[in-house]
Every structure is written in C-alpha cells, then in structure tokens.
C-alpha cells in the first residue's frame, strides 16, 4: 500500500452507529422483554456477558439471521454517511480502520447494509464463531494489563501501538464516544485530532484529564467534515 498522509481510527458503537450494537439486539428478547433475565446481571465482564446473551438467544431459537436483520435496522450517527462519502473522495490519502469492542459479525452486518466497507482498510474487534447458522460465540480480542479505563479483552491503545507507527502519518484522527476511547487518546500527538461525541462518556473523561492532541466535539459527522475539509484542499 502506498504511504498515506492520514490515519483515521473509528470506534463503532455510538460513534458510527447511533446506538450500541450489543444492547440494540435486546429487542429480540422473547415476549418483548425489555431486559435480560436476572442471572445475567451478575456478570461484570462485558465480553463474557455478551457471550452468555448470545447463548441465551440460541437456546430461545433466536437465529443468527434474525440478529443480523435486527442490526441492519440500526441508524448511522447523523452525518456519518456524509463523513464516509467524504473519506471515500479522499481515500488515496487516508488509511481508515475501526477499533471496536463489538464483534466481527455485528460490524460486518452493518457495514454490508450501509455500503461503506470499501472505505475501511481493517477492523480490530472481538472475533466470533458461527455454528450452523444458529449460534454465535464471541471470543475476546486479546488479554491486556492496561491500567487505564479499558476492559480486559480490549485496549485500543495497545491495538494501535502493536499495528501502527504514528510517526508514519502526518496526522492521526480518532473518532469515539466511550470510556475505552480515552486510553488510545493518550498516545495522540499535538498535531493529531480526537473527535469526541458530545454528551457521552469520553467527553467527561477528557474534562477530568486533558489530552495533548486537538479536541473537536461533534454532534454530527458534518461537524467532523467541517474540521477536516481544509486538510484536503
Ligand atoms: Mg463507542
Ligand atoms: Zn488501555
């Protein structure tokens, strides 16, 4: 691949899509239950929790296809269709990746539907195994000892540091909303930008402990385009 000027890193849940993929599928719970049976509440590790949720779905005959159809109803965050069109227009200068604590199946289902898989070079997320089109098992992406606000199965800072040399890029742009987007933010340089979704956990964390890079707070993908467009003149 030719050397690109920019590295764009996207969180997925509540950044690209306007909801959380893991909790969105609770819509499929039997008899329209709004929450999960109480035995699930004790599980503290989200990744293990989701594995149990999907086993529960399997035992209640909720198929993989139903899960996919449900996910494909999800809406993009406002302006993100336009943001990905903007990236596609400038793709020869931008390497574009996703780092997400969702999973490969959920993300692929949505990218297929939304039609911008062509813009994404690589996806770092929890792997899944699908058995007989009926059962999805989720596995942890890795195990880390990060001391920041990261879950044990996913430190996005570690993912970036293991796979990219930031000095190879003129500018790194990170787009996120959540607590687990703070740790990767700590490796961004003065010249980099973190795009922070307004009203979500990451914004609060940055107010407590500032980051070195430029901060752009967004409500819509259009806010991101407005900051980015003069970089591509
Ligand atoms: Mg998120
Ligand atoms: Zn971390």
From TrEMBL:
Superkingdom per UniProt: Eukaryota
Keyword annotations from UniProtKB, A to Z: Hydrolase, Magnesium, Metal-binding
GO MF annotations, alphabetized: metal ion binding; phosphatase activity
Cofactor(s) essential for the protein: Mg(2+)
Protein name stated in the entry: Pyridoxal phosphate phosphatase PHOSPHO2
Organism encoding this protein: Paramecium sonneborni
